[in-house]
């Protein structure tokens, strides 16, 4: 496996180089090198977004964000391909391989391609990976029509430079500098790539992966009690801020374990799909969704004891790219009984409207409801004036200079089941709402009516890889519905008051 710290920096440089190339391909100073039709298509979509008040960004800001998404998508395509090549998950070798023989196979295949297609360049060669992934049921979702890959393609020279990066060897020419061969097929390294591949994307989307022990703790507090009280068949969990998929992978493993014990006579492929059926995710960042999908695909492949993606079943994944705050907004905020999903929310070309509706609005004609809703929502304030205003209209807790903690709190509870078996809700989020004026409606009007179970203020706690930048966090665990007790178990940090009961205590874990 490649050394991660060095690889992240190297891939970030590849993304930056591709950004420059793709920007010129969209609207460079002259027609030479431009990709035909891209500027017109992008500009029309930007104007439509402005008209629909989906964005207030300038053309340059909007274009640059789309360029970053495309650049990362092409780099990730190479990462996914290299992972598959080195672990022999596919027959073809397009770029390289962890042995000399497989490296030579890649070079021979590329040479044969250009002999058959002498007018093509390395952009076309990279596109053969897209075509191959699209032809396999297990991986088709990685490169579907909504992928930023299809927004703009690199020049031939830029594609060649990307290939040359992967061809680099040590001083002896024996070993590739960047390899992904791993008998355990561990994909957690993709989470580190997710949050650090692009500085622009990291700032724009507040990219930060959830530490594994935090993910496990939150699933312990929500999935385990939920699974004890409701049928396994039909059990549903969603992370509306899924990022690179840590909660989704953790939930998949737990559901697979449950299904294996519940129905031991079922074949492994059926068990895997049953577990995948219970896992759902949405993220505003398309390349986060690509990573989450790839990790689920590899996890599912491992669970079937299969080592070939060509022979793998057509895994059905419930993960989509889109703004869950817009597409999952309460229907009463969007209109009356004649609510029309299509008419209310403008969808970008990278958003699958039907998938988002199925995950966040209606399923089989009924409003969606999940047994468990978990996540790690972004902690930022919304700088885009149009989005800021839209969220403020849709979510009652958006007060003053609110952070995204507020509307996501409403969304999480809105997606959870109610009634006899109310859903479990948990998240790790910024605790700024507990200390600033914007949090007053969230605390006094919204959370006061919720069945909170556990409040863990982790400000001052050192959470590796998460709050090392000083961001104070809090972990909240609740059940949907009204309070059913008089106290909440709260764990405060040393700098605050001693641990004390502050609200509604229930009968869930952690009490």
UniProtKB/TrEMBL annotation:
GO terms for biological process: methylation. It catalyses: a 2'-deoxyadenosine in DNA + S-adenosyl-L-methionine = an N(6)-methyl-2'-deoxyadenosine in DNA + S-adenosyl-L-homocysteine + H(+). Residues 279-458 form the Type II methyltransferase M.TaqI-like domain. Gene3D superfamilies: Vaccinia Virus protein VP39. Keywords: Methyltransferase, S-adenosyl-L-methionine, Transferase. GO terms for molecular function: site-specific DNA-methyltransferase (adenine-specific) activity. The keyword Oxidoreductase does not apply. Pfam families: Eco57I (PF07669). InterPro entries: DNA_methylase_N6_adenine_CS, MethylTrfase_TaqI-like_dom, N4_N6_ade-DNA_methylase, SAM-dependent_MTases_sf. Its EC number is 2.1.1.72. NCBIfam families: BREX_2_MTaseX (NF033451). This is site-specific DNA-methyltransferase (adenine-specific). It comes from Kibdelosporangium philippinense. The gene is pglX.
